Sequence to fold (492 residues):
Amino acid sequence: MAVSSVYPLNPALFSHSHSLVLSQAHLKARSLRRIIRRGSRVVVLSTHSNAKILKPNRKSRYGDSLSTYDTDDDCLLDDEFAESVDFEVDGNRRVNSQKTSGAREGGQRLLNERTSKNTHERSIVGKSYHTKNRIKEAAFSDINEQGKWMTGKSAEERYPKLYEEIDLDKKCLPLLDYLSTFDLKESHFIQIYERHMQSLQINVFSAQERLDYLLSIGVKHRDIKRILLRQPQILEYTVESNLKSHIAFLMHLGIPNSRIGQIIAAAPSLFSYSVENSLKPTVRYLVEEVGIDEKNICKVVQLSPQILVQRIDISWNTRYLFLSKELGASRDSVVKMVTKHPQLLHYSIDDGFLPRINFLRSIGLHDSDILKVLTSLTQVLSLSVEDNLKPKYMYLINELRNEVRSLTKYPMYLSLSLEQRIRPRHRFLVSLKKAPKGPFPLSSFVPTDECFCQQWAGTSVEKYLAFRQQLLLKEFAQKYERRGAQRYERRG
Fold:
């Protein structure tokens, strides 16, 4: 399937084919169970995240509400741009169906310039995995000599719903017992089975080795559950042939060791893409086509790891053309926005960009003013109009007696908390009779509490914090009373 975009691109970079025997996305759980019970042979290939970007009132396939704007959930991604990686499952090589050939060579220096760090990186990427037998002996003291998990309960007793729903194979029990240590429940195993049934057929020792490796590079124990629910295939990817090469790729980009685990937790699907044919071409596109400075790639990936696994050509071209036409934004301005807040490449134009731009227009800002605000504080595109932007605007006009044009000079005002910073500082200076006459200066909201107390209030931080705490408690009590009154009116 060829990918078309507004700008001409290297077709070899953005072409791939699909061969799915049966698409996971269209196989309902009930149908799956009926097929299994009839003894039919079915091959189910899991699909990657390929959601409709940021549609309102969306829910996940399992009924959970999804954020409309700023989220790391893989359902926001359209990652068919990347090529799926070949991987080994317990020594047998599997080849995913997506294929890509050819890539631009210019920009390769970004990925190779840090070769002097290779020795150090190898020691980190491969740490704790040079003695496989020792890992097995230490990790599975709860498994007996026959390889069975030591427990007095039968499969029906431990997983009654799972046993009934999918006709559970008892050989899976050691793996399920191990995964349960990551707070996975029966309902989660059913989700994993329906999304990628092969993941629950992995040998428990192999699964232990792979998850131990993720923990060793900084993934938090509490994040393993979310990773497995989003990308259960990760249990199939071998440490040597897949996981280490992808971690090395991130380190070559300059990602600090302390951030590796967070990036994996945010975008676990990156392990399903070829480093050479997908991830590196994506980085080259960001540098050569979008125009992001090479030294900022590390920052961009840390701010939005999903950028590595989305259709970056379409995301970039669509949003660049929109901002250029709607606000007269130059290419350099949009590049600055992406560098500061790469999440904007995930935001819907109709439900994300337009409502915020139209609100800024409605309060009196011209397009040139809006462009200044967005270039300086791109995060405005992620803020709720009703719950965030509108209340701050009302306070700016009615309480601070300031002009809307002041936002072009201090756009940071829109990113500050109304309850935690703006209102307390304003009320504090008013109580001290130190509030300036005329429009209240927005610059007083910018510095830290210490600098604010020293430069504006002329008092101690402790006195200001005590005032703020009392104000917050008072406002909380008022909100509680209003809610109680509203409930009483509904009942009446």
Q: What stands out?
A: DSSP finds 23 helices and two strands in the chain. The chain has three domains: 81-309, 311-415, 419-492. Residues 419-492 form one domain.
